[in-house]
Each structure stands twice: as C-alpha cells, then as structure tokens.
C-alpha cells in the first residue's frame, strides 16, 4: 500500500509561458506549502507564524531583540542549537515564548558610515529596553513603518503569533491544531509534541517541515471524510466506516506528490568531514535520526486511519524531498528599513532623530538588519530544473515582504522555453559547479557546461 503514497516525480519541464517575458519581468509568485522559521532566528525577528510577515511595532521588534540579547540568549545566526524555548516577557507583558524554510534573495543594504560605528554592541539599561519593548518609549518616524498588530494563537500556546485573524485561522485549520502545545491543542499528547519539537530544533528543523506535511494531509483527509459522512447522512446511508479511505488519503496527499522525492539517507550529500569509508555508517545514522523523529511524531499525533503517513519510508521520502527541493525563506526586516530611513533624513532632522535612535542602533550593532530566515517548500519552484546559464532567478523585490517565492526573468524568455534557475553559484569554475550539483544527484549538461567541457 505504501507505494500508493510514494509519488513519482513530475518530469515535465516548467514551460508555463504563453507570452514573451522580458528581463526583470515577474515570472511567477509561488505560495509556499510549508515553511518554518529557523529556531535561532526567532530571537531576532518576530513574525507571523503563517505568512512570515513581521508583526508588532518597530519599537517592540527592537525592544524584544535587545531584551533577549540582554538576557544572554544566544543570537548565533547559524541555525544550530535548539533555542525555541526562549522565554520572553513578550508582547502583552505575559511570560511567553515566540514561535517558530534554494536561495531567494534579499537586497541587503547597509547604513554606510553608520555601519562601522554600530558593529560593536553597546548595551542599554534593561529599563530602557523594556520601556521600548512595551512601547512606552516611542521612536521618531516609527509611524512611517506601520506593522500588523499581534494576534495570539487560538489554541493558547505561547509559540505562535499572527498578523491577522485570517492567518491564525488558516494556520489552525491547515497545521497548527495538531502541532499546538496550548490547552486547545488537538494533538493526543502535548508532552510528546514538545519532545518532537525539541528533537527537531536540536537536530534538523527539516523535521518540522515534514511534520507540517503530515499534519496537513491528516487534517485534509479528515475534512474530506467529514464531508462524505455528511453527504451519506443526507441520503440516510448507514455505512459509516472507521477504515482508511485510501482514495481520500491520496487526494489529501496530492499537493505533496508534486515534489521530487528520494529517501533522505540515500540522497543526502556526504558532508566534507565524513570519510568515504564511513559513508555506510553515516547513512545509517541519518536513517536512525529520522526514525527517532517519526516515532516522536507518531507518539504525539498518531491517527490509525492515516497510519501509512507514519512509516519510516514515507517520512524518509518527505525529508528527502525537502533536502532536494527546499528553499531559503527570507523576508526583509522593517527595522532595517527604519534605520535606513532615519539615516537618509535631511541633516537637521536626522541629527535630532538620531539623538533618540543612535543608542538603539549601537546596542543592536550589525544585527539591526537581521531578516526573517527559515526553510520552506514551494510547489512550483520545486519543479524547476537547474541550468548554469539560467533564464530566471529567485529574487525578492522591494514589494515582496511576505513568505512567497518570487521568480524574475534574467533575460527575454520565449513561449515554450523551459524556465530554469541556478541551484548553485553559476560563476564558479566548471569542476566546482559539477561537484556541487552532484549533491543534487545529476551532472549538468547545460550549454555553459557543454561548452566549457570541450
Ligand atoms: C528541484 S527538482 C527539479 C524538478 C524535477 N526535474 C522533477 O521532475 O520534479 C531537482 C531534481 O531535478 C533533477 N534535475 C534538475 N535540474 C537538472 C538538470 N539540469 N539535468 C538533470 N537533472 C536535473 C535532479 O534529479 C534534481 O535532484
């Protein structure tokens, strides 16, 4: 039965054009299916747990970050340690912790002359930081950067926050009702869910993406089944079964079936520090890690009718899909925009504003420009093949402030032409490009590689 859920890859090329695109045109915007913010980034950026827009005022964003910094919470930007359980006197003054993934890009500007002076952090007294965090202290011109206010999770957890009721409800319906650790959570065992999340944060947050894929399938399956039961009731059918309806499970699994899949422990590139003679042991270890993770998840949300989803084979393929297809999730910060705005004010206004803002910029150091970072799966982008001479690239424009992926044309693209992107730095020498692409399991035969190989 498992093979039924083991979808084949989409082999057609992405040629969706019916018109000509010119350089700089938007090719597509891709709505993410699943995303997670890196656990270490949760300290730096307070964002909507569904759409990843920044939430709360500029003051709260800065104050919260400095507060955590003052508490000694690590802001190590390498996504390493499990730091999700950071507890902060948050938004409404109550003790809480905030929640929560190929390379789309953000134009990173800097503050020019200000940057050098802000590279060394000069801490501020906690009272000042707290008054900023609680918005008792208002920064000049911050009203030019209005952000959505914070909507808490309806399940009562202190991990997920939203930019709107719409995002909160959509997350609840699609994922969070089963992943929530609050009082209204629909998971069987909240402690088990906490253990699963902790394990993912300590090892690989790709497990959190896999969990989202599984819960969204379960929740969709239940929805489809409920609709069928309702229909049966209408026609007074008495056949109500608790057995799995495989047809419906496949229907619920459909969005995920688009991604190219191989088992994680088979497709993962051997890290540089692992000797090739240790390869078999390494792959076994990775498999074991996935096994531990899926067992923890099973403990938290097992559903007999969706039993197939909890097999190591399906879990391994899901994580393999994210390994081969996942993209960096990057959303630019309004805090960076705010400081850039102040920096560009006419001299007299700038001088006056900086009397208030400078201590905060100095306390933040270079971290003033931290953007929201995570990992995500985008269904359309995941169907795009690589070329070292691509005709499109993922690029965030000024107006792209949410978690959607944006693909821009790098040159004119004609009707019927395959849209390609580069998975790697295409300016690298041929050998290095081929070595990097070996991680994706293929040898590139694009025109650039073919020419250089001659
Ligand atoms: C993100 S998927 C791209 C979509 C994939 N072709 C599919 O059918 O779903 C990445 C995988 O596609 C294949 N692929 C991508 N670009 C390729 C290329 N230029 N030549 C050969 N295979 C490629 C590799 O197997 C790679 O691991």
Automatic annotation (TrEMBL):
The keyword Zinc-finger applies. InterPro entries: ATXR2-like (IPR044237), SET_dom (IPR001214), SET_dom_sf (IPR046341), Znf_MYND (IPR002893). The keyword Zinc-finger applies. Coiled coil: none annotated. Residues 304-424 form the SET domain. Keywords: Metal-binding, Zinc, Zinc-finger. GO terms for molecular function: methyltransferase activity; zinc ion binding. Pfam families: SET, zf-MYND. PROSITE patterns: SET (PS50280). PANTHER family: HISTONE-LYSINE N-METHYLTRANSFERASE ATXR2, SET DOMAIN-CONTAINING PROTEIN. This is Histone-lysine N-methyltransferase ATXR2-like. It comes from Heracleum sosnowskyi.
């Amino acid at each position: 039965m498992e093979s039924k859920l083991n979808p084949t890859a989409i082999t057609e090329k992405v040629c969706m054009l019916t018109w000509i695109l010119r350089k700089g045109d938007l090719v597509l915007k891709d709505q993410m299916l699943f995303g997670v913010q890196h656990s270490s980034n949760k300290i730096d950026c307070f964002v909507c747990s569904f759409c990843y827009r920044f939430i709360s005022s500029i003051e709260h964003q800065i104050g919260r970050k400095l507060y955590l910094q003052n508490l000694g919470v690590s802001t190590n930007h390498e996504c390493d340690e499990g730091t999700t359980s950071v507890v902060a006197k948050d938004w409404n003054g109550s003790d809480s912790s905030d929640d929560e993934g190929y390379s789309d890009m953000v134009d990173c500007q800097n503050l020019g002359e200000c940057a050098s002076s802000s590279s060394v952090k000069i801490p501020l007294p906690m009272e000042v930081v707290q008054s900023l965090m609680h918005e008792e202290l208002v920064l000049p011109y911050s009203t030019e950067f209005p952000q959505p206010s914070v909507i808490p999770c309806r399940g009562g957890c202190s991990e997920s926050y939203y930019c709107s009721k719409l995002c909160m409800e959509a997350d609840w319906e699609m994922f969070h009702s089963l992943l929530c650790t609050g009082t209204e959570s629909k998971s069987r065992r909240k402690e088990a869910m906490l253990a699963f999340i902790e394990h993912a944060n300590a090892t690989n947050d790709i497990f959190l993406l896999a969990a989202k894929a599984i819960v969204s399938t379960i929740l969709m399956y239940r929805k489809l089944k409920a609709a069928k039961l309702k229909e049966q009731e209408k026609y007074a059918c008495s056949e109500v079964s608790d057995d799995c309806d495989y047809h419906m499970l496949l229907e619920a699994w459909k969005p995920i079936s688009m991604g190219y899949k191989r088992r994680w422990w088979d497709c993962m590139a051997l890290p540089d520090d692992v000797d090739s003679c240790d390869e078999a042991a390494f792959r076994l270890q990775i498999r074991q890690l996935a096994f531990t993770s899926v067992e923890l998840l099973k403990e938290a949300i097992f559903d007999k009718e969706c039993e197939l989803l909890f097999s190591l084979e399906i879990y391994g393929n899901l994580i393999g899909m994210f390994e081969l297809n996942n993209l960096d999730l990057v959303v630019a910060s309004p805090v960076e925009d705010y400081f850039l705005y102040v920096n560009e004010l006419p001299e007299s206004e700038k001088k006056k504003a900086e009397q208030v803002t400078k201590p905060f910029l100095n306390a933040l150091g270079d971290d003033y420009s931290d953007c929201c970072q995570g990992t995500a799966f985008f269904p359309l982008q995941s169907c795009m093949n690589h070329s070292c001479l691509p005709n499109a690239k993922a690029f965030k424009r000024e107006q792209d402030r949410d978690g959607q992926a944006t693909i821009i044309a790098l040159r004119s693209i004609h009707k019927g032409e395959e849209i390609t992107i580069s998975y790697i730095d295409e300016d690298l020498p041929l050998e290095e490009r081929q070595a990097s692409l070996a991680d994706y399991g293929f040898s590139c035969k694009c025109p650039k590689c073919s020419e250089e190989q001659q």
